Amino acid sequence: xxxxxxxxxxxxxxxxxxxxxxxxxxxxxxxxxxxxxxxxxxxxxxxxxxxxxxxxxxxxxxxxxxxxxxxxxxxxxxxxxxxxxxxxxxx
Length: 91
Description:
This protein has 91 residues and is mostly helical.
């Protein structure tokens, strides 16, 4: 395995990551299985996906609703054709 020297002040982080990688034989599937086991045994969530909050979510929902409304109205057959049409209009 190739090692690289870093000058970004994060050597401590690189050392931790290298140690963890070695612990699981450089296999991310083994690491994921281990952390799922730890999470299940402890009852606490180690990782929790966070949904974005604020105006971005509302804008996404509005665009999604508009796309589905236009598809339901028969203006487009699929979401892919709707997106393609939007890209053509944007150009």
